[in-house]
Design goal:
This protein is α/β, with parallel strands linked by helices and 307 residues long. The protein has a domain of 184 residues: Rossmann fold, CATH 3.40.50. 41% of the residues lie in helices and 13% in strands. The chain has eleven helices and nine strands. It has a seven-stranded parallel sheet, sandwiched between helices. Helix 2 packs parallel to helix 3 and helix 7 packs across helix 11. It is globular. Belongs to the NmrA-type oxidoreductase family. This is SDR family oxidoreductase.
Length: 307
């Protein structure tokens, strides 16, 4: 299998940030992309070269239609943390992939997952989805990202970074984290789709090395050309802010990861994997400061005129 040979890829989640990054990279490399969406055409994000199938991940017939005629698949689970719905989504994808003769399915677990069971829905629903997909017999590769740098290019972080040099995030300063960009996720997904002899493998993808909060702030300082300090954001405050945007149930699901990290139960959960994934997937993640330097941070400056 080669990344140069065109694939026909069913991308589940391409209208979101993570799946969208994967879909864009695939189309850039001249692979054919199809995705499932409930959004009307006017509300769909721009995905040049991709085609849309109207439907719902919870309806088996819609998912079969998405997979019809495709050779490969990539799946990012929506921000859903109810076990029954997640299991149904995973089962629908597995059955559609088997029926279509999918050569390989790459599942993005959205997060790292602790070795043992927890009471965190964000972990356990993804563990459940992995099990359903694996038990189905579909040729599967799982990638588990840490935390996305793109989370920091946001209305919550941008103004404080640009105006005050403050980088606030709900991770303990001591939590070593292999920060990854959405583009880095896409590159890992493409490698997982195309490199030989990966079926059955699980990769804790991430940046080249782990960074503490202070080291992350220093990298941002180099990228921005100014002093930056790290401040730990209270996960409960983060959850309340997120609830205003996503609703309380989704916010609780997302924030569960940060409550877990704040507990110190597994301080290395988001750390790098000693270079295993970068070597096997032949990835070369750039330093964090390079990613920072490429972002248009001035859009968050308080003196930026409103359009």
């Amino acid at each position: 299998m080669s990344s140069e040979n065109p694939m026909r890829v069913a991308v589940v989640g391409a209208t979101g940030f993570q799946g969208g990054a994967v879909a864009r990279l695939l189309t850039e490399r001249r692979h054919l992309v199809r995705t499932l969406t409930r959004r009307p055409s006017a509300d769909r994000p721009p995905l040049p070269g991709a085609s849309f199938v109207a439907g719902d991940l919870g309806r088996p017939g819609d998912v079969r239609q998405l997979f019809e005629g495709t050779t490969h698949a990539f799946m990012t689970m929506p921000l859903v943390y109810e076990s029954e719905r997640v299991e149904a989504y995973a089962r629908n994808v597995a059955e559609a992939a088997l029926e279509a003769g999918t050569e390989r399915l790459v599942f993005n677990a959205n997060t790292r997952i602790p070795l043992g069971p927890t009471d965190v829905a964000a972990f356990e629903t993804r563990r459940l989805a992995e099990r359903v997909l694996r038990d189905s017999g579909v040729p599967l590769v799982v990638i588990r990202p840490p935390v996305y740098l793109d989370n920091l290019f946001s209305p919550w972080n941008g103004p404080a970074l640009v105006d005050d040099g403050v980088l606030a995030y709900p991770l303990p300063p001591s939590a070593r984290t292999a920060w990854l960009s959405h583009r880095g996720l896409a590159e890992a997904a493409l490698a997982a789709l195309t490199r030989e002899d990966l079926e059955g493998r699980t990769f804790d993808i991430g940046g080249e090395r782990s960074l503490t909060g202070g080291e992350l702030a220093a990298a941002f300082g180099r990228g921005l050309g100014r002093a930056v300090r790290y401040e730990e954001l209270d996960p409960a405050a983060f959850e309340r802010s997120l609830a205003e945007l996503l609703g309380p149930e989704t916010a609780a699901g997302v924030a569960g990861i940060y409550h877990f990290m704040a507990s110190g139960a597994d301080p290395l959960l988001m750390a790098d994997d000693d270079g295993v994934s970068t070597e096997v997937l032949a990835l070369e993640p750039p330093p964090v400061e390079e990613w920072v330097a490429r972002q248009p941070w001035q859009v968050w400056a308080s003196d930026t005129p409103l359009s």
